[in-house]
Amino acid sequence: MADDIFREVDEEMRAERLRALARRYMILAGVIVAVICIGGGAWQYNAWRVQQADQASADAYFAALRNATASHAPDGQATPLNDQQKTALTQLAALEKTARPPLRALSRMERAALLANSGDTAQALALWAQVNEDRAADPTISSLAGLLWVQHQLDTADPAMLRSRLALLDGAQQPWHGLALECEALLDLRQGHEQDARGRLQRLSMDMNVSDGVRTRADGLLQALGNDNAGG
């Protein structure tokens, strides 16, 4: 009898332990499911917030663009900023502080263009330098910023320094290869290296991978050089 009682108590204790263990695992499983659900919801909420922020940044960027392009300087002539363009500068500067890297770089590029067109080359150069050095920026935009930085100093800055920058941009696989080579030819002419300039311009005039505009300008410069020689 006693053995039966002990056995019954032992079985009851084991059953209770199993029930407690089952309850513990059920609670744990519930916690895990809750964490997964909360985590999934938090991820979705965060993704939604990022999407909303990106949309707001894009809307602000296009609003700034509308103000920036309200009027254009004739024939690339430097003209003072009008009120809408000044508003665009303020909008773009604010956007640079909140937008993610791709849009931040584009905002700086647009602001630099406005400043350069108004004659404020110094501030434009500073912005192009920032984009060029921004590792988070799209490489094509970063390279373009470097090219514009060089182009706006072709007649004034140290040729050796400019050539060192262009050497990073003139490779055949680089997106702005043709324009970089054109800048190098113009530097050759500035320094009196006419034969080097001719060689670069001839390469450009026959390169089907560069834009029509670059080839046309190269042909025009070659003809001018030929006419100059003929006249001399």
TrEMBL record:
Ranges annotated as spanning the membrane: 25-45
Name of the molecule in the record: Tetratricopeptide repeat-like domain-containing protein
Transmembrane listed as a keyword: yes
Keywords, alphabetical: Membrane, Transmembrane, Transmembrane helix
